[in-house]
Write a structure and sequence with these properties.
heterodimer; A: about 240 residues; alpha/beta; Nucleotidyltransferase, domain 5; globular; B: about 350 residues; five-stranded mixed β-sheet; 11 helices; binds zinc ion
Chain lengths: ~240, ~350
Amino acid sequence: MIILAIDTATGAVSVAIANGKKLLASAHVSSDRRHVELLAPMIKNVCKQADISLREIDVVSVDVGPGLFTGMRVGIATAKTISQALDVPIVGISSLDVLARSVSTTERVVLATIDARRGELYWAMYRNDNSTCVEVKPPVVGTVSDCIVDLVDRGQATLIVGNGALRYQTAMAQSLEETGLSIEWASEQLAQPSATVLALVAAERALLEEWQTAGELQALYLRAPDAEINWLTRSEQTRFAT
Amino acid sequence: MSTHELTSSSFDELVSSSSVVFGIETSCDETAAAVVMGGRDVLSSVVASQLEIHARFGGVVPEIASRAHLEALTAVIDQALQKSGIGFNRIDAVAATVGPGLVGALLVGVSAAKSLALVLDVPFVGVNHLEAHLYAAMLDDANVEFPLLVLLVSGGHTMFVEVREHGQYQIVGRTRDDAAGEAFDKVARFLGLGYPGGPAIDAQAHLGDAKAINFPRAMINDGLDVSFSGLKTAVINHVRKFPSVATADVAASFQSAVVDVLVAKTLRAAEHLGARTVALGGGVAANSLLRSEISTACARKDFRVVLPSLAMCTDNAAMIASAGWYRLRLSGPTSLDAGAYPNLGLTCAI
Ligand SMILES: [Zn+2]
């Protein structure tokens, strides 16, 4: 089973091709908002490296977020259209699942985080069960202090991974030290989700046929557009006023 | 980016009258896909409008537009293909709008078009949205002769374009402030007529007297540029001064002032350039008064006038596929590392 994996949910563009769980080729470039320029040529090159024609692909997988909205959409639009044109299924995986899977050998609870900007994080928590990653807290968006409260409430030894927490590492480490919780930080190299791990998770899901059609796949934003938030607040106020 | 040179058709072998281009348009608030053969023959054209999603905000919200494009994308591509009666394997090139437009919205269509081109192993063509509006006018009329003067009027643009030959354009006049469609939207919002403003004002104007209020026609006898911000202010001042004025009269008088200026400048530009054919393009080209007045004025001067169908005035992908076919013949394929260019000018190469 040939899998094409695409990850553009953070500042990086990452592409991998695998045959089942065997990685054939991959590329990872820090892009800083050049997702659309980089992605198509990278897919072409990775296919070439793997000596695979795009037409041989059996499953497309993509990071559906949460993450950078514009970046995510480049990857998702690309994956959807490849899946549609090839008439093959698509596997959507959250950026937080990919991060957690990259540290799946730990005994600790895993806190996976993605930078949501404006002092906020996207996060979810996982625990390893017979080398499979089980989600114990579904993805949410919130402030750094909300995230710390969440950790303290759980009260278990934790491994923190991802560019969200890394951005606030000093402040978070300080607050957490006072709580006496055992905290470990994953390497900075794992800060962004990578397509090689994504391909691995996709291979596992595809075996179980946990896939969708291109039309069904949806992005995982977790945060409403600003205009919608403002509009709701405004209509709420008018409702109270009248 | 550089200005287009006089181009010999060095890519003639890439396209023929039977070449099929798949077009994708996502620059603003319409998700559209189309299949066009030989640059003219529209096999299908599907448009999913986001009008209702944005209406409550009184204008297009970029993040909401980008999300809606991604959601509509697969179904729109699928329908365009189904309706065309051809299969993916019959497609010879894939074109998408790369600018100007909302960057987040453009990225969705550009990503889709590149990946479709990649899978089908055919050229990708980046299309300038403004150039595509010029082709929209020609899609409905097989006998357009150059030089051609096009009035391109929409919510984002108001310009007078001389088309000397395929790919050779010169903007001879433009708005110095608001686009005409923007003026319609702002005045409609002020009058409480809702969004989008163009159709709302057009409908109200039918019920009112266009001579009721003599609004200013800025620079009507002066050059080829236009300005609408003074007119908008005049409307607001008039309504504040005479609160009991009939809304329909204001709408009719405002619309008549806009149309008078647009028609006068279009005719002047055409005469000045020696163009015998005049065409309209863009969303405001759907305005009923503009269509009738420009027809009357052109008939008086013995100019030929090309009025695109309403579906070709508003954003669609048939015009993208058509422009893509001509662009492919003139300049060849676009590199897969092209981006999205939110401020792309009409005469900028991609
Ligand atoms: Zn347009």
